[in-house]
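Exercise 7 asks you to align residues with tokens for two separate proteins.
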Amino acid sequence: MGCGNCGTGTIGKDGKPAGCGSNGSCGTGGCNVLNTYDWLKHMSLPEDYQPFNIVEIRFKGSRKEFYRNEEHLTLMTGDPVVVESDFGHDLGHVSLSGELVRLQMKKNHIPEDSKAIKKIYRIASKNDLDRYEEVKEKEPSTLERARTIAMGLHLEMKISDIEFQGDGRKVIFYYTSEGRVDFRELIRRYASEFKTRIEMRQVSYREEASRLGGIGSCGRELCCSTWLTDYKVVSMNSAKTQNLSINMLKLSGQCGRLKCCLNYELETYQDALKDFPSTDKLVLKTEQGKAFLQKTDILKRMMWFNYERSSDWTCISLDRANEVLALNKKGEVPESLIDLSFALETIESLEPAADLISDQSLTRLDHKEEDRRKKSRSNKKRRGRGNPNARAGNRGQKAQSNDQGPQNSNNSGNTGSRKKSNNRNRNRNRNRNRKPKDGGQS
């Protein structure tokens, strides 16, 4: 893919963006997670403008830090740079530069004169990049071996990810745990196994999901790995306020905690609930009996009630429910939940439906069949008139049938006489075999 702010997004032979070919490890601000769009990039700046000397650098995952550009290097988004570290040096990519960095620092409450801001050494050379790629290739095998050692020590912790420093002299292990973990023996085992400086960094479950990434139940990338940086507290009251089913399998995200998106529409539901009765077990009194609240649609402002000893639900609007509730507080009882006078006015105001059946007859298609038969007869006559040979053949067939007519009639007469004689013989044989009723001889 080719990014809008990536200098490597060249055009291929087929006219489509060829991209940088990094296959997911792009160092620009358009392919990485938690990217920031530089909306000041195409704006013309004053001639005496001095660029802001602090740059935002991105490392593996969603980790970003600010570094000071004391050498006044010309840096663009996506440039690999070698930066200062606590132990040796590290390699990262420029994710943001210019005045937007000042706003990002203000947002994160980092003062510009902070001594914790380290400096940028140089733009990464080919040797730096080769060393960086060589170190990154060891991460999968190192992570597998680190998990095996932690399981052998029976520590209640989960090592989710590791990150090698650019020069390979330091490795950071990211882990999650419910409580405190005594990993002094673990660090000694890691140091002797990997021959590097070890740093253990505990992260929350939401930060773990942000580093690893993934696809949510909505079909999109996780919010925490694309744009969300402020992890606010999500409680079960957020789900109850929105009238959601309390099913932890559906309400939990990939981090195992409640989804962050439960807070996105919470204020909208809270504003809508201001007009609803405060109690959940609402009971309305009518002449037909007590009606109990069964279901509420907050955004549609509809409520469903059912009477005692009845399984049928009655749907009414929120305004009607508040009206009945106000009457009950005054000691008045309406005839029904539904306002009958309003219902009759509504029915009378409706236009009658169009009659689509009465003008349809069961024999409406018979004339079409009769027309088809007449048309077939006329076609046969037309074919007979236009073919003299066919008329001559028809005359010959009629004459032949007339000649055979008497012969056929004689044959039919002979057949009838044979049938009569056979019937007489059967009757004689039946009378001979019949015994007399008085037991005498015949």
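Second protein for Exercise 7:
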Amino acid sequence: MGKERGITLVALVITVIVLIILAGVTLDTMIGDYGIITKAQEAKQNMANAAAEEDKLIQNLLNELKGIEAGEGEIEVPKGTIEFGEVTWSNGQAEVSILANTAGETLQYQINGTAEENWKEIKSGEKVTGLYHGDEVHARLWNGSIASVNKSTIIKDEKKPEVKVTVGEVTSNSIVVTVEVTEEESGLVETETYQYYLGEALDGKSISNSYIYVELEQETQYTLTVKVQDKAGNIGEESIEATTGKILVDSRLTEGKYVWYTDAYGTQQKCIVLYGVENTNYSSYGIQIITADTVGNVTLGSSDFNTSRNSYNNAIAILNAEAENYRKKDDGIAEVARCVGSVPDNPNYDGAGMYTTQFGGGYSGTLKDTDNNYVTDWEQMNKLKIYNRGKYYWLASRVVIGNSSYCYFDMRRVNISGSLGTDALCYVYIYGTTNGYTSSGALRPVFRLKQGVKVTSGDGTFENPYTLAP
């Protein structure tokens, strides 16, 4: 029993000794020259030194960026001010002034960028020109080394185009408008510039400032709106009220249709629409009807040369006056009558000067020259195939036929065969011989209808002509 206690005590002593040894090793590891704590403190100091060095390097770099050399002291950033003036526009371009309060620095600017090589110098108060909507103008103060932070402004067109709409010609089914626009800023868009509305509905788009609203109802008020867009997207508009008129003439009165017309002598004349509503010259011609057959007989000229010359020179007025005798005045149907072959919208237009070729007897310049008055009616009659009546009839137009020895001064006519012909009224020979002639022919009066004439019956055929009423 005593022996076992001795062994236990020895073991305990050995264990204590081992623990003391291990504790010493641990303390040395923790706090010795190479201990963990010592090394941690050294690492902390090294990191602090590295951070200080890094801060120093960053500061040096910043100093270099500011144009500062070590030991020379800091150069101050310009402290002036920059302001932009009011943007003004003219003919689609803008300009803006740049105002600066500086202490010797240079004012610089550039457009749509800040690249170092693109800066340009400008004096305070001067304007940057040639600008467009959306351009960005940058400005800075520069002292040769560094610059202040950029100040910039964006050029904006925020003004709507000014639109003025004017009503032009109004008919029973159409209205013409013209548009005047004031736009000094970004300018108008180049396609579909004008948008034309009928009420709330878009009626058409165009690059033209003139527009015709068509297929409208007669005697109806419409709201017409025109919208115009500029290149900045601003839309100007104006609305107006306009009312269509009464039907000016029945739309059934088309070329080639037959109508009845009772003339001044009480005779019911079968007539043909010579110029109708579909004619491209309707606005100046109106609706014109021509007798289907010839009427009356008109003699021009005389065996006396001077009398015949007077008849020849005044033949157009004479023939038109004879045609006018067939118009029933104040019947509400026809407003004027003329001889076929005269100018449709200006019947008494002469269209000829004086013939100037010198002949014996001093007659040069005393007789009217050739004219082409007949062409429009003649081509229209041929188009409608209504020229051949199997009779002679006059055309209110002259022609001169001759050579270096003689001249015939003729009036145009349509022959029995339907061909174009002439009849001489005066003859002049180079040696001074003169003659006067008489010639006779029938008339084909042309009546221009009044506005508002309408069809009351008939179907416009040869067998059943339209009947007209005011």
